[in-house]
Design brief:
It is a single chain. The chain has 2 helices and 12 strands, in the order ββααββββββββββ. It is mainly beta. It has one domain. A 5-stranded antiparallel sheet has the order 3-4-6-7-11. It has a 3-stranded antiparallel sheet with strand order 9-8-10, with no helix packed on it. The longest helix has 17 residues. The radius of gyration is 16 Å and the shape is globular. The N and C termini lie far apart (35 Å). The relative contact order is 0.23.
Length: 250
């Protein structure tokens, strides 16, 4: 089935699901798929800095880093701008729950993910109006949305990831994370070795590529993965992205 990539530079066509998000599917995207292989655990560490609310969220000033082309910068900038414009619709967990999102129970990390599992296979990829996951942080005693996390369809691999913003946009997986099998509300149940299955009743539902897009400044840039236990794994041969050039964006 062909996938429509909503929002990301219509002229460049389909992003998400990394294009084909799945190695066996024939999803259509306008971005070149990378050929990176199996994931590895990254040991890169960084200093955690509290993200501050953005002021003038739509005035994005994304800058290219080494090796990023003008076309890649434009696509990344467009994805960031549209995400900033759209995800405040779900500013609180209550808004997210009303729209079908459910927590995976990871609030202990400081960043709680709400996922609408029906969106993972809905044919929409990198669509800011239908993000697969929303990330919330506690701010002044209340949880507020701070990022979208776009997910490719189940069973996708890094080989299916489209080129959104080159070195600006690094996808990651959680190939060691075990979640309960409930199709509507999966909870984090524990971890398993990268090359081992999860215990009965749980699966590696986070082993498809995903991409964070932060609508608040992040010390490692607007497309950074989490840190520590929540960082996941990046493609073999890559280190965890920390884009300090764009740390103040948006």
């Amino acid at each position: 089935m062909k996938r429509s990539v909503i929002g990301v530079m219509g002229t460049c066509a389909a992003i998400v699901c990394a294009t084909a998000c799945g190695s066996s599917a024939t999803h259509s995207t306008g971005f070149a798929a990378t050929t990176t292989t199996a994931p590895r655990t990254t040991t890169t560490t960084t200093t955690t800095t509290r993200r501050q609310p953005s002021t003038g969220a739509h005035n994005v000033a994304l800058r290219a880093t080494s090796g990023v082309t003008p076309a890649q910068l434009a696509r990344a900038d467009h994805l960031l701008r549209t995400t900033i414009a759209d995800i405040p619709t779900w500013n609180t967990p209550a808004h997210a729950e009303a729209a079908g999102y459910r927590s995976i129970g990871d609030a202990v990390t400081g960043d709680e993910h709400y996922v609408n599992w029906s969106y993972v296979e809905d044919g929409h990829v990198l669509d800011p109006k239908r993000p697969e996951s929303l990330v919330y942080e506690n701010r002044d005693g209340q949880q507020r949305v701070v990022a979208a996390m776009y997910m490719l369809p189940f069973h996708s691999t890094f080989a299916d990831v489209p080129d959104v913003g080159g070195g600006l946009t690094q996808w990651h997986v959680h190939a060691d994370l075990c979640l309960t099998d409930d199709p509507n509300q999966k909870f984090v149940a524990g971890f398993a070795a990268l090359d081992r299955p999860c215990p009965a009743g749980t699966t590696k539902a986070g082993d498809q590529p995903m991409l964070h897009v932060w609508i608040v400044p992040n010390p490692c840039g607007p497309f950074a993965a989490l840190e520590g236990v929540g960082a996941g794994q990046v493609p073999t041969g890559q280190s965890r992205l920390c884009d300090t050039t764009n740390a103040s964006v948006p």
